[in-house]
Amino acid sequence: MTTLFEQAGFGAEVPRPLADRLRPQRLSDVVGQDHLVGPEGTLTRMLAQGRVSSIILWGPPGTGKTTIARLLAGETGLAFEQMSAIFSGVADLKKAFEQARIRREQGRGTLLFVDEIHRFNKSQQDSFLPFVEDGTITLVGATTENPSFELNGAVLSRAQVLVLNRLDEAALGKLIARAELHEKRALPVTAEAKAALITMADGDGRYLLNLVEEVFAAVGEGGVALDSEALARAVQKRLPLYDKSADGHYNLISALHKSVRGSDPDAALYYLARMLTAGEDPLFIARRLVRMANEDVGLADPEAVNQALAAKDVYDFLGSPEGELALAQATVYIATAPKSNALYTAFKAAMGRAKETGSLAPPKIILNAPTKLMKQQDYGAGYRYDHDEPDAFSGQNYFPREMGRESYYSPPDRGFEREVRRRLEHWARLRKDRGK
Prior knowledge:
There is one protein chain. The chain is an alpha/beta fold. 51% of the residues lie in helices and 6% in strands. It is built from 22 helices and five strands. Strands 2-3-4-1-5 form a five-stranded parallel sheet, sandwiched between helices. Strand 2, helix 6 and strand 3 form a beta-alpha-beta unit. Helix 12 packs across helix 13 and helix 15 packs antiparallel against helix 16 (265-277). The chain is elongated and about 95 Å long. The termini are far apart.
């Protein structure tokens, strides 16, 4: 199979990046994706059955999406047509579809690979449908974003979504071994530095090979192996993969929220640190902490929301990095607070009933009567002032007459809500004793 450089018209003498020189020549050579290309992998079974349906390859950068698409075309005899949704428009799509139509008339199919397919708008995505349905093209789309949110339902219904894994240490280690075999020498780093190099790659095989190439270039034949400090000087470490408008953003805030809800302060601190390291807006985190304090703690510990609001004020006052400690304090406080969603659940139930019951009038006993006419209509008649009642509690029904008394809030027997529950039970006994 020709390389991208050869397709572009460059000869063998043109220098090529190590990642391109080590591009797998068979599907089975793709590392870290055994569930797709291993002996029992999804794509392996497709090829064994002599068919390849349209697919969407979803996974992080540097996990083999483009390579898999090229190899699928090679192993099925389909013409490989590649485009990027970032640089292509309607005219490019029309041209690709027309070329695929001509090939089909000549008896050859086309595998159209669209990188970053989620960047196409709805109408552009819809343009694929007739050509996929009649077999003019086999569509292989690649995306780093969740297809459920970024791709049309019509496209998803005609393509199988295959998830590529972030490359683990073992897979990245295999790539280093291949690079060493290609270069005919061991990577000139200490064992500790090699582990650091794998960590720097953050699951991205292409980025790892770029780093490896830099190391080989920095240390010539017979040079002294780099330790971790020397490695850090030789290569530039990138920030973790994180796009505040994409999955990384939502995945990490979800992980932080669920760690707090699950009363795991250590995991919560880890995800807080991940977000801050990646450049998340600290005030966005502060707002989410306030939400967690209300939604997952509530009255089980009323101080939780105060801690969250105080963290926001401290950050506003001190800025970064000092103010980030206040966010950490609030995170740990909320994570270790007793948990209750009783108030959250009660409010949702009350909102539901408010929408169902429409404009039912409150009972007249709790309506003020500032005019003579309203007094004649019995507004306020029979109201009992609680402070004048035994135990400062009248037990009257305040719901609309058509509804009767209902119960939404049921606090658990933990945290401060244990005391709230005791009060509610006390008032319930008083109502019963007084026949209310």
